Amino acid sequence: MTPRVFPLPGNGDLAARLARRLGADLGELTVRRFPDGESYVRFDTPPAGRSVVLVCTLDRPDEKVVPLCFAASTARELGAERVGLVAPYLAYMRQDARFQPGEGVTAPQFARLLSGVVDWLVTVDPHLHRVAALTDIYRVPATAVASAGVVAAWLRAHVRAPLVVGPDSESAQWVRAVADRADAPHVVLSKVRHGDREVEVSVPDVDRWRTHTPVLVDDIISTASTMIETVGHLRQTGLGAPVCVGVHAVFAGHAYRDLLAMGPARVATCDTIPHASNAIALDGPIAEHVRPLLEPHWRP
Span 13-41, mean pLDDT? Predict the structure, then answer.
């Protein structure tokens, strides 16, 4: 039978676009809270006999994970053949080691939780640091969609003579991938973090790039402290106002407002988390990675 795509709250637009690309049905799912704060889940469109695709990006995850787990378990109880999850932003990848005595190592713990309720997972550019691959901690097929090609295509179409700038050494591999695909030069800055919101960034000599448009790229924009600091330093060099590009628009607190206040030419993000800055659509690459997970059971 035709797969059925169900969006959890806030994921309707992406779910509809994925359903169209996959040739799947778009189902309706009700999620709300009882007066005491407990979650209520109801499938308004039956999942029985279907491969079910739940769409739920996992920024601010604690309020989303319980309804997601209930939805996955309920779909299975109601007769779904398989239950997969498209989580464009995957939470709980940061704490992948015990840095202080007594800390919880939550990355593998969260992976075990999701692996217990879904049959497969597709996400976008997870923050892999000490974990080499998602399959090292997830016990179900877990696929990471790379956004570099789509980001590069957007740069080619919207930015004149881009100079791709990475804010720190952790971004080097991803920055290089974007720059290579955009056929653009790139530089990587060095960063010293003094706290959650205090970041010092050093800027190399960029005189030879003065005819280029600096493009700051990073995978996750959370507090935006790194980008804010880097925008300020780049503006002091006399370069033009930079374009800021991020994959995941977390933007905690007033981060987006604070970044705009620094005067970037533009802030553009991928649509892994719904946000006013979304400009780069990833439903195409996501659908390409979901389709093989559905095809053993169904072909359009």
Answer: 97
